[in-house]
Design a protein that fits this description.
Blueprint: H1 2-21, H2 37-63, E1 68-77, E2 80-88, H3 90-113, H4 128-147, H5 151-169, H6 177-207, H7 212-217, H8 222-239, H9 248-251, H10 257-265, H11 268-278, H12 280-284, H13 287-308, H14 314-334, H15 338-366, H16 377-380, H17 382-396, H18 402-420, H19 427-456, H20 472-487, H21 495-500, H22 523-542, H23 555-560, H24 565-614, H25 618-641
Antiparallel strand pairs: 1-2
Length: 642
């Protein structure tokens, strides 16, 4: 029964998505009520698919007591076996619940969000049927990654997510940046996916099977593990927006805000962290890979946090905060605690989905994403304000909100790895992750406070706009997500919940004896939290009309451009590749096409000449025949004499 539930879990949204793709787009002259049949059918398919998937995920959570696996051989060629099956445990069930809950919230929220609003000059949802279908496919692909018992199945879900992200980011084609952002996301993640594919191939060839249980049980050589681990991390860096393949994620904000919530909270960026946790014994057996992961995670953590301090676009602030929080997750994996990484993944899914959907409400109300044009919204939008307070508090790590407990868990295991050497990587990796995490606490509190003050406090900067809290279809998803954003961290005190995040293949080490930790070690992060919040508040009180980011001085443009790493990528990668493409195109057009077209032109010219002779008048033709006979006779005479 458990295996059947696991198989149905990704199948339901995938089928709903495929059926939704068969629906025609809604007519462009559709009324604001959205009552046409195609749109109504797409709404029903999307919401029903997500709701059934959530029910299956909850049922799986209640029924999975011990790790379970069911599989059947699909392909067995040349000593390589590919299976169809599911691999289920408590961690998979919890992640599945998070994915389906956020997907359901996004499907319901999108009904109201992708409808003609007060600031839209044209109807924006005539493409709603393919939009809802692509969300279902996106959800099903992530669930396939979650439950896959075979690396090839995991790869299929991994790649379908990449395709769906491209389609969804580019959904609103009226925005000039949307198609470019979608293409950038697709190409940057493809760079990492090449490594991911090669890593899977290397493990499969080494094992003789792509079944995850066989891959984990096989005795690989050290060189194979290190090479495969580093290749897999390339894919993780792409999907989970880790340095240096992080540049696509902020630009992906050109997509609809509900899609930002889906990508950032529970699907694409979570897939990389989950994949490492799924294959974690392979990484512990090759400590070099975890060392690389720790360095990359620490850089990503600080890079995202610093970049978030200087953004004016509210969605880009949240996007860079996602980059930073993913650094906490990969840092936890590097210091030996997949449980802490997944716990932060779950809490982050709750509060980041809440923040993006609340930001969408604000954008829908004021018609802009720029915080410099907002202000004073706490009075006119009290429900949205308090939900945003909960989300930002969880992001910053304010106790007792969810983010406080999960982030403190990451810092505790990093401290243990640094001071006691309990992690699988060298102790200096623990120091690096711990110090970066502590500094990130203060910076996160600063930019979270800045967002709250700029958007909701002070005086309104657009006096002609009359914002208000959203209608029920937008309000209820936000309100319901505020509950886990506030309380999910307390679940870490519940034994069954903590046990479900345990991995039977991962030994317990150091502080990996509990998800939450209460003790003197909590005081330092709390002090840094107060420092960050206090600094931004003081700066705002000096001049409530000014942006606290002014205090960054000459560093502000550097942080706003994320240290210009996008420009570095453009110079070192994009421009050379374009130049190489131009050379290849020129060679193809001049050399290859020149030979082919030249031979064609020569044949055509010869044929034209012969045709001219063939069409010649009778006297000229007779002269030609006589001349030819004379030449043949002359040749014969010369040949006889010789």
């Amino acid at each position: 029964m458990t295996g059947l539930i696991g198989a149905l879990l990704p199948a339901v949204p995938l089928v709903a998505g495929l059926l939704g793709l068969l629906l025609p787009p809604a007519p462009r002259d559709n009324s604001a009520t959205g009552g046409d049949r195609a749109r109504s059918a797409s709404v029903a398919l999307g919401v029903a698919g997500a709701a059934v998937a959530l029910a299956l995920a909850v049922a799986l959570l209640l029924t999975v007591d011990v790790p379970t696996e069911t599989s059947t051989t699909w392909v067995d060629v040349g000593g390589l076996m590919v299976t169809l099956g599911v691999r289920l445990d408590g961690a998979a069930a919890l992640v599945a619940v998070a994915v389906t809950a956020v997907a359901l919230a996004v499907q319901v929220y999108s009904i109201g969000y992708l409808r003609r609003g007060p600031h839209d000059d044209i109807d924006v949802d005539h493409r709603y049927p393919p939009y809802a279908a692509q969300i279902s496919l996106f959800t099903g692909a992530m669930l396939l990654v979650v439950v896959a018992g075979d690396l090839i199945m995991l790869l299929v879900g991994w790649e379908v997510m990449g395709l769906c992200s491209y389609l969804l980011i580019a959904h609103d084609r009226r925005l000039p940046g949307a198609p470019a952002a979608a293409m950038k996301a697709f190409l940057v993640t493809r760079v990492g996916d090449v490594g991911f594919l090669l890593g899977i191939a290397l493990l499969g060839v080494s094992t003789g099977s792509f079944r995850i249980a066989d891959v984990l049980a096989h005795d690989h050589s050290g060189v194979t593990l290190t090479a495969a681990g580093l290749l897999l991390l390339a894919g993780v860096a792409g999907k989970s927006a880790q340095f240096p393949l992080h540049t696509w994620l902020p630009d992906a904000m050109a997509g609809p805000t509900p899609i930002s919530a889906l990508i950032h909270a529970a699907t694409m960026v979570a897939a990389g962290v989950y994949a490492v946790a799924r294959l974690y014994p392979l990484f512990t057996a090759a400590p070099v890979t975890l060392t690389v992961l720790g360095v990359v995670g620490a850089i990503t953590l600080l890079l995202g946090a610093l970049a978030a301090t200087a953004q004016d676009d509210i969605k880009r602030v949240l996007a860079w905060s996602t980059v930073s929080q993913l650094g906490y997750m990969t840092g936890a994996l590097a210091v030996g605690s997949p449980s802490a990484a997944l716990f932060h993944l779950l809490t982050h899914a709750a509060f980041k989905a809440l923040l993006f959907l609340a930001a969408g409400v604000v954008i829908h109300a004021v018609g802009t994403t720029l915080m410099s044009e907002m202000g004073g919204l706490r009075r006119s939008m009290p429900v949205t304000f308090w939900c945003t307070v909960v989300g930002l508090g969880a992001l910053a790590g304010v106790p007792p909100l969810a983010g406080f407990w999960s982030k403190d868990g990451v810092l505790t295991v990093a401290e243990s790895a640094a001071l006691e050497g309990t992690g699988p990587a060298p102790s200096w990796v623990g120091w690096l992750v711990w110090m970066a995490g502590l500094l990130g606490v203060a910076i996160t509190a600063w930019y979270a406070g800045r967002l709250l003050l700029r958007a909701f406090f002070g005086t309104p900067r657009l006096p002609l706009v009359r914002p208000h809290d959203p209608p029920a279809v937008l309000r209820w998803p936000v309100l319901l997500l505020a509950v886990p954003a506030a309380l999910l961290g307390l679940a870490g005190f519940v034994g069954p919940f903590a046990d479900r995040l345990r991995f039977p293949t991962v030994p317990v080490a150091g502080s990996e004896d509990g998800l939450v930790h209460v003790g003197p070690g909590m005081l330092l992060p709390l002090a840094l939290l107060l420092v960050g919040a206090g600094l931004v508040t003081l700066g705002w009180r000096r001049d409530p009309t000014a942006d606290p980011a002014v205090g960054l001085g000459p560093l502000r443009p550097v942080f706003a451009r994320a240290f210009r790493l996008d420009d570095v990528q453009h110079t070192l990668v994009v421009l050379p590749v374009r130049a190489l493409a131009r050379v290849a195109r020129t060679g193809d057009e001049v050399v290859v096409d020149g030979v082919v077209e030249g031979s064609g032109r020569a044949a055509s010219g010869l044929g034209a000449g012969l045709a001219t002779l063939h069409r010649a008048a009778l006297p000229r033709a007779a002269a030609g025949v006589l001349a030819g006979a004379l030449l043949i006779g002359l040749a014969a005479v010369i040949g006889v004499n010789l």
